[in-house]
Amino acid sequence: MSKIASIEISQHRLPLDPPFKASWDGRPRRQFDATIVRVRDDEGREGIGSGDLMKGFEGHEDLFIGEDPRQLERHYEVLSHINFHYGRCWPMDLALWDLSGKITGEPAWRLLGGRSDRVRLYASSGVLRDPGAMAAQAESYVDEGFPAMKVRFSSSSGGRGTWRDDVRALEAIRARVGDRLDLMVDCNQGWRMPWDTTLSWTFKDALMVARELERLGIYWMEEPLHRSDRKGMRRLSDATSLRIAGGEMTRELYEFRDIIEDRAFDVIQPDVALVGGITGCRRLAFQAREAGVMMTPHSWTNGIGVLANAHLTAGVGDAPWLEYPYDNPEWSELRRDFPMAAPLRHAGGWLELGDAAGLGVVLDEDRLKATRIS
């Protein structure tokens, strides 16, 4: 029987020149950090995970060493306790799924239920471009075969201006591509970076924006209110034909349980690298389906996180699309996936997962060596 022999965690940093000006962050990002988790068994196999920084995991390795890596529910419980006391250590769960797949010789999507070996993608933009540039970006997504695109609104006054300026960008996209793309909008009101003290919209603010988005045929409205205002989210969902989406930074699975039971969101967006891992989010997929709530994961970490969310979505879910962070040139596949030997490549808006055991991650060891930080 396979036993966990060692756990290694390393941090890596890729300089970004030109910087990435993320819509949710008023400070240009001049570097991109990645945490790599390696779990090895006593027969030399290695599982790989990535995502959050794994703060608080150090000193708890003994809770896993010597255990069967396939005891995924047991390991989930331990990680949930670490998550309560310290940080988000869910990349460990991803590595355990990768290792379990390598032990059994099966891809994770098949172990998770085997509904499909591929997922449809929506292009998730991250940069606040002017209306003309946003329209050109949307047209490029159409040309590449994407069926849908997510457009970001300004998180504070440091963006395009007011939400009305953001709506003008949407209008330019609609004028250029018509109904060839489904459009989603991330309002960036659910949370803030530590230095951003801008208040979130009120319910009335969000309702005014919703009326404009209805006019433009937007598929969903994401994070339109502060994350704590679940009653407001439910009111907004009842007041508009738009689907209300959110939950990307939610920390606990029980919060999603309450969100689903209250129908606070029409679409939940957990990220396996940030909440619950694959093991926990698999539970959410079933809960959401029974309640008639859509689940389609958030996936803004790196290519390893994208793959992990894709395996869950393909194996268990029935989401119309999965988020694919992709906004050239500032957020290219090469930048996003720098720890990997080759970046993920979509094929006409699809991500093919294939039959590689586990998550199918192959690391670029030379690049990881060159980018490693203390």
UniProtKB/TrEMBL annotation:
Cofactor(s) required for function per UniProt: Mg(2+)
Chain segments annotated as transmembrane: none
GO molecular function annotation: hydro-lyase activity; magnesium ion binding
Pfam families: MR_MLE_C
GO BP field: carbohydrate catabolic process
Superkingdom assignment: Bacteria
Keyword terms of this UniProt record: Magnesium, Metal-binding
Annotated Gene3D superfamilies: Enolase-like C-terminal domain, Enolase-like, N-terminal domain
Residue ranges of domain Mandelate racemase/muconate lactonizing enzyme C-terminal in the record: 131-243
UniProt protein name: Mandelate racemase/muconate lactonizing enzyme family protein
Species the sequence originates in: Ensifer oleiphilus
